[in-house]
Amino acid sequence: MSFSKGNEGANGGLSSAAISMDNYGATDETNTLTSDYLDEDEEGVPIEFGPRLVNDDPGTYFNDGRRKIDFVIVYEEEKLSEKQQQKKEREERERVEKNLPPGPEEDEDAQHREWRKKYISNLLRAGLEIEEDVAEGDTKIITYYKLHAPWTVLAFYAEELNFRAPLQLNTGPAADIPGEEDAHTNPSSNWSARMLRKLRIPNIMSNTVPNKPLDFFTCSFKRSKIKKFLGSDNKATFFTNSDRTRVVNEILQSSTYGKRRRAEIGIDRLLEEDIFQAAYPLHDGTEELPKGNLVSDEDLNKRQILNKYWARWGCWYKYQPLDHIREYFGEKIGIYFAWLGFYTGWLLPASVVGLLVFLYGLATMGTNVPAQEICNSGGEFKMCPQCDPDIGCPYWNLSDTCMQSEIAYLFDNAGTLFFAVFMSFWAVSFLEYWKRKQASLAHHWDVMDFEEDEERPRPQFAAKAPMMEKNPITGIMEPYFPEDIRKKRWLTGVGIMCGMVVLVLIFMVGVIMYRILIDIPLSQNAILKSESQSIASMSSAVVNLILIMVLGQVYQTLAGILNDWEMHRTQTEYEDNLTFKVFIFQFMNFFSSIFYIAFFKGKFVGYPGNYTMIFGLRNEECSNGGCLVELAQQLLVIMVGKQIINNCQEVAIPKLKQFILRWKMRGSLGNRESKRWEADYQLVPNDGLFEEYLEMVIQFGFITVFVAAFPLAPLFALLNNWIEIRLDGSKYVSEVRRSVADRAQDIGIWYDILEFIANLAVMSNAFLIAFTSEFLSRVMYQYKYDFHLHGYTNFTLSYAPNGTTSEPCRYKDFRDDEGNHTKVYYQLLAIKLAFVILFEHFVFGIGRFIDFAVPDVPESLEVKIKRESYLAKQALQEIQADKL
Description:
alpha+beta, 3 domains, 5-stranded antiparallel β-sheet, two-stranded antiparallel sheet, 17 strands, 53% helix
């Protein structure tokens, strides 16, 4: 593995050298991995290097043009001017002459240099091959260590990491999408393609993407079975780029740079300590398409194919090429986009039904008798002042609220109940069918039986753990943090989280006070008094959105600090606890004001002569159109406003980060174009999928928990997600560094959160229809008094008790002349409670039936699993027979 030093380039200060083991104090004998399967062609070139594709980027190879760059590590150092260098050398000479010890900075620099040297040496010992490039900029000297894993290393770690290898091509039934070959099966299939094909309707969403990965029957990779696997005769392409990066990442994570007993292990901790600045696998080349038609689509690199057939805006109506996404980015990112696409597809029927419900309300608005009675009442219903008359609040006529009454019918009509039931079943069915889709994908992508092995400690945990203790599973000494101290810290974190939730409630009270104080002067204005509550409600919703976004950013920073302080041992524990903290807070942050309007506002106002007071002011009532209209306004502002802000951030922030990175690298390229490893270093580091999942889960809450009040919510979510898929796709293809192709078999803890929201939505919509809308009170009036609702407005109004107001007036409630609740009130309360119980039991019962009737694993998939198991056993038996 020793290579001679390469030529030094003059352009932009670039120099290149291939590093040998001997340079770093290691010898070939230290590498225990042998080249048992390494063949050579007639010219003596190892077959594993292989030929390059027509449009393959030469920047993804070593300088010999043969060995693939599987990973890049970057180190930056300040470039000193000539005077600074002379000063440094003079100070060093004086220190030596006076026999003084090195200062803290010199000591730290020397330690970091030693760690870097030892780490590179250990990577060579592990079998990696390294080539070094140095680029000098105006202020920085940037060193790129390019890593390549030879066949022997790949084969050894593929067996250790339980990679799956192809046994036989799956030539089952043809995919349901026209134009696909028999080998491309199950997960590409979807209900919309099947339905359109049966109806003989052209499918404009069909997306025939070149070079689709084939579907194979697979089993665990074994070096002893190498000849039984398909493609084993071509070792250059046997392992995909994603497999190669997984292997190199495993070596990077497990190699030491100091003393193992101090847990000085892994690239993550080196990055944390700023000893290296970046570590990333390379993209396959540029995402920009070749000019003209010089290269066919089949010869495009995988990044260009994803950009042309997925990430660009022109593909907004096309199916996602999930197999290509998984092949390029790995299963973890592939499953996220599969879930996002599946969720977006299911939003389509929900959007159509929601739009039809809204149009039904619009079409039947003229038949709304209660609204007609209000509009034609003139001065018949003189209403009590909405605040204390002492501060100038006047009496008013109910006819002033004619427009609000008509608008309220759009969100409170017979379709409301139907849509609430529909969306409850929709949420349950969506989760059940996602489990089936998830199982199909997991099997198709060979991660169905994937479980994390015993995870190594997080680098941050290893750095801060106060003691070492033997791991009971591996028997290796590992960093340890006392469990009792961790529990105390976790409880402290829960207390701080509760404090932040209380802070949210305090801000919510502040918004309520703002709404009351704004409403008072507006209600005194002769022109604006009829719209005072609507103006106050909309402006307070905007103020609330600003507070929500600010508090959300503050808390996410705080949650990260708390999670670090709690010292979670593994990355899985860390992410699960962070997800729990952030979701609980963000859910309260986004939904507390909505819950208040839906279930508390206007319910505890009191009555004339006995009003409930808060800080000397009367508790606020629902707007003239009812609380359901206010709830719809609040949902519209918060949901749509959040989506607009998030989308703007996703566009602007990566570009700003790219500008900063390119500014730091200024002058390092000279007059030449950047190499692939330099171009990728200028991209934004990948922050993972946490923010993406959180955004979609909060949206799922908006369209399910309060959907009875806002039937257009699924439509807005659908429009946002069409944009979101392209923004995320463009970000991953063009704007961020390629991440390690992590494996995953599901969406993890997010499924449990979605299930919690779906169950909460059933209860929320039941109470919303019963206690916030007037649906049940209208049904009761129709049954007892008049089917056509004549006289309903008068039925819902009570007279102010004698002596409580200077003039006779009316207010909305069911009370007698002394302010006590009437018999009708208790009858209606009993009906509401009965409705809630029946609604919940009916929906949950049907949901459990759906859960029982829809198996988590499709029958066709079970057959494939059994077939694959049979082939794996057959291959093993043949190997044993050959040995005998």
